[in-house]
């Protein structure tokens, strides 16, 4: 049941009406939310619904034990909880990866006996809800969660349907505070939510899905293309990935707002980042902030005696985790490693924590005109490690770009209307880049006809360029 499907619209309308008409208090509303979330998850992966429910119950029990324990037993319960979460992640997501690479190692020593791979199904959303569970246990251990929620509220936090497939990875305290009290219908919040959903639909259906009609066949025939065509393909994929993932996040945030719940913002216009550190503060914010708090910060403290070298080690481990989180493939791991390496010049110059100055003007400053294109190109090249099927394709793709054929005219067609749509999206996002989402306050000071005309144009474009319900790229993680 995709967020951009008619079946989801029917599901949500029923849930929405029941939620507000029959939800007399917060407990009843949360019961409806939990039932709805489990129905939604079952529509994707019914065979793993029991795993989600059991994991929720076990981590809730361990969270209670951590809260009541003292001294070393508190640490022991935390380690048990984290171990159980990681072991299921390692089994479902990484087991065959380790077996394959172990077999390759045996081959190097001339040993022909091979361990058999298992036919393991992948529980959808496991990377997202596992990090929610771990964050919850760590927050209890660090006294950031002052009181243990009810099992009902904790279950809603883990399974909340707009977020379980592709995030954001919310923190326990703000989310649980959101659902403690009854949510009353708010016309202001309802309008805000609908606008954010509309913008998310535009980015997903009009931009991302239509770029996919170019990039998918391009990647299939990449070995026949010249360097300029390959670079344009990588650039288009970067925009596609952003539009797809941030489009999902906008829809998830908008749906949550309709239910009176605020979830974490996941993107802050990363296509306009001015350096590597600025980009990672803007891209997949819920994951990067989670890793900053629970991985990078403890490691940087541990390695602090090594000065800049310690900071580099902490960054490299942090981004190695980023790579592994995305998948059990070497190209994802190298994506993480290269991401960490890209920080080294900033660390060496002592500029990693220096915040970039961004203007709110329509006309970009000289610094922005210089920094944004350079950063965009760097991450366009990095994203090649994200979309390739394996490292062999990555090497060949880079060889193709960094060849003399880069200076030839591209030998792959790109539809002009898609280019115009991309430019239009980027203009709207640039104008509204100081807001939570681009069209949040766009044209609010203009007359009603102009404002509603703008919304109707977006709706028209959604229906005009709608191809078919397509999955979200990050649902595979």
TrEMBL record:
Positions of transmembrane segments: 5-22, 42-63, 75-97, 117-138, 150-169, 225-243, 309-326, 332-348, 369-388, 414-432, 453-475
Highest taxon, organism lineage: Bacteria
Matches recorded under Pfam families: MBOAT
Location(s) in or outside the cell: Cell membrane
This protein's UniProt keywords: Acyltransferase, Cell membrane, Membrane, Transferase, Transmembrane, Transmembrane helix
Major localization class: membrane
Recorded GO CC terms: plasma membrane
GO molecular function terms listed in the Swiss-Prot or TrEMBL record: acyltransferase activity
Membrane topology: Multi-pass membrane protein
Any Gene Ontology biological process: alginic acid biosynthetic process
Family listed: Belongs to the membrane-bound acyltransferase family.
Protein name: D-alanyl-lipoteichoic acid acyltransferase DltB (MBOAT superfamily)
Species annotation: Chryseobacterium defluvii
């Amino acid at each position: 049941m995709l967020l951009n499907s008619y079946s989801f619209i029917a599901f949500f309308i029923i849930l929405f009406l029941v939620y507000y008409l029959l939800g007399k208090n917060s407990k009843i509303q949360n019961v409806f939310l939990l039932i709805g979330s489990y129905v939604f998850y079952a529509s994707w992966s019914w065979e793993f619904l029991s795993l989600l429910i059991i994991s929720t119950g076990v981590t809730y029990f361990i969270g209670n034990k951590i809260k009541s324990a003292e001294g070393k037993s508190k640490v022991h319960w935390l380690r048990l909880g984290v171990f159980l979460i990681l072991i299921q992640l390692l089994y479902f997501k990484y087991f065959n990866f380790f077996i394959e690479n172990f077999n390759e190692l045996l081959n190097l020593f001339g040993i022909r006996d091979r361990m058999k791979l298992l036919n393991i199904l992948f529980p959808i959303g496991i990377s997202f809800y596992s990090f929610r569970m771990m964050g919850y246990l760590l927050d209890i251990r660090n006294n950031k969660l002052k009181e243990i929620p009810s099992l009902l509220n904790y279950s809603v936090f883990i399974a909340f349907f707009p977020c379980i497939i592709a995030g954001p990875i919310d923190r326990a305290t703000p989310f649980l505070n959101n659902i403690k009290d009854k949510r009353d219908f708010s016309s202001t919040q309802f309008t805000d939510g609908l606008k954010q959903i509309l913008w998310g639909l535009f980015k997903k259906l009009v931009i991302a899905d239509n770029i996919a009609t170019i990039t998918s066949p391009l990647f299939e025939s990449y070995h026949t293309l010249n360097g300029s065509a390959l670079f344009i393909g990588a650039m288009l994929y970067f925009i596609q990935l952003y539009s797809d993932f941030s489009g999902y996040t906008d829809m998830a945030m908008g749906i949550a707002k309709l239910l009176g719940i605020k979830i974490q913002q996941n993107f802050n216009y990363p296509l306009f980042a001015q350096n590597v550190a600025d980009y990672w503060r803007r891209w997949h914010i819920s994951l990067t902030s989670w890793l900053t708090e629970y991985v990078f910060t403890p490691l940087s403290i541990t390695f602090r005696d090594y000065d800049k070298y310690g900071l580099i080690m902490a960054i490299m481990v942090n981004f190695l985790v980023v790579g592994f989180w995305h998948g059990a493939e070497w190209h994802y791991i190298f994506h993480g490693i290269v991401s960490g390496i890209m920080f080294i010049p900033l660390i060496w110059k002592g500029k990693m924590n220096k915040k970039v100055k961004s203007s709110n003007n329509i006309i970009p400053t000289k610094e922005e005109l210089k920094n944004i294109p350079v950063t965009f190109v760097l991450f366009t090249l990095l994203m090649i490690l994200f979309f390739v099927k394996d490292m062999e394709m990555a090497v060949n793709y880079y060889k193709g770009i960094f060849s003399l054929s880069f200076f030839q005219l591209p030998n792959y067609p790109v539809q002009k209307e898609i280019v115009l749509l991309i430019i239009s999206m980027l203009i709207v996002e640039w104008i509204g880049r100081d807001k939570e989402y681009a069209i949040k306050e766009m044209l609010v000071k203009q007359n009603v006809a102009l404002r509603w005309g703008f919304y109707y144009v977006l709706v028209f474009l959604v229906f005009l360029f709608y191809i078919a319900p397509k999955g979200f790229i990050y649902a595979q993680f």
